[in-house]
Specification:
single chain; mainly beta; four-stranded antiparallel sheet
């Protein structure tokens, strides 16, 4: 799920409904709080855990990879590249001559200054990956971008791009490298400079707990990236954190009221309406289909630089697909159906991921 400030809309593609991968294309209007399903003539095949970023130079959304379930319930990682335009409502498959190896769950973000998408790591069905690639839509080309020091192999962490500082920030993930080959969530924070091709680990005394599958997005003009939810220490989470760009410090922004605990949610930051949007995911009781807004007010008078925090629970809405259309419901959730488990660390979705 990614946001276009030009169109003032989020686009969501694919996912998993508890029994199969999805190929639906949805548009969310945060101002009117409405979800609309589109029906393009051509779409990528069903998949989950794919890459999706918004390229603001071309005004299109770029998709790569993910996993696909076949009719015999076997799984394959994908390495196809697609673009989606809200102007034409069409998907277009791209055909770069070189691509990253098939994978799901990579960490990705779009650099609006250099006009490239940066991708790191992911999972190929057997191993966690640590390679770094960039994609230029203008040239329809993927290029490997190794460096002497870079983050360890991982999947399901999150990467954001900070335009004002022309750098990327990476947080967390999972590498399944714990004792006796058990799950191992990560809590490290890295900064990456495109110009110098240098990764720098950032160390602090306070940081979010180790996790994968959070939602992480830059709060435009506020000097923060916001992070919420995820899966860590065998439980879904619902805390909220801000990463302050000025001094590379994490600040706990968790309000008194938060959405239900979850991981593998979608979301992002609406820079026009100035809201952090959270949708769906896997909760303690199963799959969720609720939508939440989070608003906070930075304050230079506050020791942390953060003023009053508000979570708009009253505007929480959910999307329910019915035969007659859409129904908007406050805080509705669906229980997960039995089916393939996600991964070995969560014990809730593994045949497709491992």
């Amino acid at each position: 799920m990614e946001y276009s400030p030009r169109d003032q809309r989020f686009v969501l593609f694919g996912g998993w409904d508890g029994s199969r991968g999805l190929d639906g294309t949805w548009v969310f209007d945060p101002a009117n709080r409405t979800w609309t399903e589109l029906h393009p003539a051509v779409s990528p095949i069903e998949r989950g855990d794919e890459m999706l970023v918004y390229d603001d130079q071309a005004d299109v959304f770029v998709l790569f990879g993910g996993w696909h379930e076949f009719s015999n319930q076997t799984y394959a990682r994908l390495s196809d590249t697609w673009t989606f335009s809200l102007a034409t409502m069409n998907w277009t498959e791209r055909h770069p001559t070189v691509s990253p190896s098939p994978r799901s769950d990579p960490q990705v973000a779009y650099d609006s200054v250099v006009d490239v998408t940066l991708l790191i790591g992911g999972f190929d069905g057997t191993s966690y990956l640590g390679d770094v690639w960039s994609y230029s839509l203008a040239n329809d080309s993927w290029t490997a971008r190794p460096s002497s020091l870079q983050p360890s192999p991982r999947a399901d962490g999150r990467l954001v791009y900070v335009r004002g500082q022309n750098r990327f920030i990476l947080f967390g993930g999972n590498d399944y490298n714990g004792p006796n080959f058990t799950y191992h969530h990560l809590a490290d924070t890295w900064s990456y400079s495109w110009n110098s091709n240098a990764w720098t680990p950032l160390h602090g005394f306070v940081a979010p707990s180790a996790r994968d599958y959070p939602v992480f997005a830059v709060a435009t003009d506020d000097g923060y990236a916001l992070l919420t939810s995820g899966y860590g220490d065998r439980v879904p989470l619902n805390d909220v954190w801000g990463f302050r760009f000025a001094d590379n410090v994490w600040v706990n922004l968790t309000p008194l009221q938060s959405p239900p605990h979850r991981y593998a949610a979608s979301g992002g930051f609406d820079s026009v309406n100035h809201i952090f949007v959270l949708f769906g995911g896997v909760g303690i009781g199963g799959l969720l289909a609720d939508t939440w807004y989070f608003v906070y007010e930075p304050s230079s008078a506050s020791p942390t630089g953060v003023g009053p925090i508000t979570i708009l629970g009253l505007v929480a809405i959910a999307l329910v697909v019915t035969t007659s259309g859409l129904v908007l419901i406050k805080r509705h959730s669906r229980k997960a159906r039995s089916g393939p488990t996600r991964d070995r660390d969560t014990q809730s979705m593994t045949s497709r991921k491992h």
